[in-house]
Amino acid sequence: MKGQAISTSTPDRASVGRRRFLTYLLAAPTLTVATRLAAPPATAAAATAPDPAPAPAPAPAVGALPGLPGVPDVVDLGDALILAGLPTAHLLVLEVTAAGRVVLHLPRAEVGQGLTTAVAMLVAEELDARLEDVDVPLSDARPDLLFNQLTGGSNSVRSLYDPVRAVAAAARARLVTAAARRWDLPAGSLRTEDTAVLAPDGRRAGFGSLAVAAAAVTVPAVPATPKPPGQQRLVGTPTGRIDARDIVTGRARYAGDLAVPGAVPTVVARPPTINGGVQSFDASAARGMPGVLAVVPLPGGGGVAVLAETFDQALKARDALQVSWRPGPLADLSDAGIRSRLRAANLPFLVPPLLTLHVDAEFDFAFVSHAPMEVLTAVADVRPDRAELWFSSQSPIVAQQAVAAELGLPQDAVTVHVVRGGGSFGRRLFFDAALEAAQVSRAAGRPVKLMWTRNDDMRHGRMRPAGHHRIRATHALGQVLTYEHRVATVRTDFRHGLGEALTAAGFAVQAGGLSLSQGFFLLTEKNPYQLGVTTQLLAEVPLDMPTGSWRSVYSGTVRVADEIMMDEIARTLGQDPVAFRRARLGSASARAVLDTVAAEGRWGRPMPAGHAQGVGFHEEHRSCAAYLVEIDATDPAQPRVTRAVIAADVGRAVNPRGLEAQLTGALIDGISVILQAGNHIDRGAVREGSFADFRYARQQHSPPVVEVHLMPPSGPPGGAGELGVPAASAAVANAYARATGRSPRSFPITF
Amino acid sequence: MPSHTFVLNGRPVTVDAPDDMPLLWVLRDKLGVTGPKYGCGVGVCRACTSHLDGAEFQPCTVAVKDCAGRRVTTIEGLADGEVLHPVQEAWLECDVAQCGFCQPGQIMTAVALLRRTPAPTDADIDQIQNICRCGTYPRIREAIKRAAAAGPAGR
């Protein structure tokens, strides 16, 4: 980030929809504009009140008892994270270079979700720049951003939509003003097109040629207001990824591909059990092997690192280490024992089963590894007085703090470069490999490129925690009177800065006896149906094992169990599952996506024996989605989803093509976690070791026919990265149940 | 240390490496060719998929000595300069990639499939074992069909 001093310019007061942003020049040789919030909102309610996000609507349907609005109706996790990030100065910085590049420094991670493309589109739209002239590099960790460099909660487009447009519009106003001065023409007579300013007489000045002059424009002569949505030409248009060519040619660089001078391949010998440790080790054989440069025990006692000239030599020397391992804390525990603990921890229902008709069900969900294709990899160069790291991170500021604390360095002596990531699904909220790389680099006195193996990732990586769900619905005269959902999970680790962010936003998430997890649960989990008196409670079982948020977090199990119950209640009441849902959905947009998949998917069409359709619906992040899938479960042990029809309303899709990709990826996640992919715990160790036994879906499990239908724009963008997982998972489970006549209770089904 | 000579992306290379070193690490750590990715090291995820004498293989499970005198093609060698291979073009047209990490392997697998089977059926495409953790399978299927429909030019 080059500019530091704020110029004397009068800030542009661009009112962008819900919030106002000040934009201002940074002192720099070419045009560099930053933005920050105009005035911090007094309270959470004040900030969210003008948000046109759907409020709980009055009950539209006969035959359904309204429930109380859930917390996420009023303020959800995304709102909380936006609030936490609002006060940050220098929120975003946009530069126009003399070479005509428009550069928006993005304080978020790109892990495949397509954020850099969406942001480039927003920038290109406001500046009337060609998309190919826009660069969106990932910012280094910027502690000045406090809580505004956390990628998660499907919150990036939601939080960036307004400020990116504000900063780009401010830059455009200055470029136009600079051209007007050069040509001595009224600024209002000029227009912008294809990364250039155009005069009525046909003269044309590329942004690059104006970059220096525009840096001196303190007061723009034209409004710096973003375009109204009706004038957007690029936003909302299906657009290919800006990094697609780099990817298909092999030029895209991930942490392991970086050629940092002197950084040597490093792997770590790890214990057979979760959180086990080194009792003693003998490295004499390993040290003598070809290519080996050093053997370094990890300071925490969790393993022994081997540095070598190549990864092959490091791996072979690692295997030659003689290590005596201390068993991990769960060495006596296996899946059955964990399941018993979860059942015992689950809280009781309030409504007794006496005198009422009721439907009860219990569900178990296994642990699920994140298993991103790129295993955790980090490059670290630690010197006595400073450190520099390169890795993909959703939480680089927290990582920087942790590395600084570990090394005993001031935070500003640690530089964290955020590299593109090969998938994440929540995994890169944590920075385990970076911390290890810093430790090993310091101990060995040289830069390292530390890589977890796939086996490390499966056996010691984080997982979606296993959970047990108990649900009771009471009903009379065809109406659901009460709906109770009790969830017990192994504790989810949220220690990646989330608690600090929520606290900063004014949420006392850890007050009143609530854990951080329960605060998260409260801000995210909402049953979208009117089911009378509804309660849902989380109980946690703390186990000493690595867990973490897995794409869609609690909704990935809570809402799936809900959606299976919806089918089962409908069946008990003799009602059609789609009609039953529809009558109990509160919002028109929710009913519209459900109607769309029912119509486009030809809900109810005749299917051969062993085949069936299933639906699932989910609403979160100010968005909603419905999935209809068809399954061939002729062989119940080898089900195949054959077709999927998806509908989503995200308010406004910046890039419909990217949104479709997210919704399709969520479908494959749903197929995987419901039918076949999970992790077993055997005596304190993860049984699975690679994609050979962690059976994430392959092409043969993916439906040959997938259709995605996006609802027309209706408001500001909602979140979408995680949106599809619960609905897709539920649709697969419900289709399987209908095809087989079974009631699946434990997931994945073939496990 | 033994010396090994093979043709890499059209050019002969000679590299000193132990006989049993998997080609993947020779490519990545000794030759700086990083298109083939490590995803498992045991030939299961297929993120490293490349071509040996024009046929699909996984460099993580093939020793460098077994490549001596043969033609190795990685994703970097698929395009003709700046002119992309038709399968790469199909990948762009279908906007297949998400995180992109598995895509070099997916593309090399698709090219090999189309060489063997110029008009693959859904069942043929289902045989592909490469993992894509982002779940881009539907667009991979679409891109393969598009490349097949475009004909054998360039393959």
From TrEMBL, chain A:
PROSITE patterns: TAT (PS51318)
Aldehyde oxidase/xanthine dehydrogenase a/b hammerhead domain span: 249-329
Entry's Gene Ontology molecular function annotations: oxidoreductase activity
InterPro entries recorded: Ald_Oxase/Xan_DH_a/b (IPR000674), AldOxase/xan_DH_MoCoBD1 (IPR008274), AldOxase/xan_DH_MoCoBD2 (IPR046867), AldOxase/xan_DH_Mopterin-bd_sf (IPR037165), N-heterocyclic_Hydroxylase (IPR052516), OxRdtase_Mopterin-bd_su_IorB (IPR012368), TAT_signal (IPR006311)
Name of the protein in question: Isoquinoline 1-oxidoreductase subunit beta
TrEMBL record, chain B:
Alphabetical keyword list: 2Fe-2S, Iron, Iron-sulfur, Metal-binding
Domain 2Fe-2S ferredoxin-type: 2-78
Pfam families attached to this UniProt entry: Fer2, Fer2_2
PROSITE patterns assigned: 2FE2S_FER_2
Superkingdom of source: Bacteria
Entry GO MF terms: 2 iron, 2 sulfur cluster binding; metal ion binding; oxidoreductase activity
InterPro entries cross-referenced by the UniProt entry: 2Fe-2S-bd, 2Fe-2S-bd_dom_sf, 2Fe-2S_ferredoxin-like_sf, 2Fe-2S_ferredoxin-type, Beta-grasp_dom_sf, Diverse_Oxidoreductases
Listed name of the protein: Isoquinoline 1-oxidoreductase subunit alpha
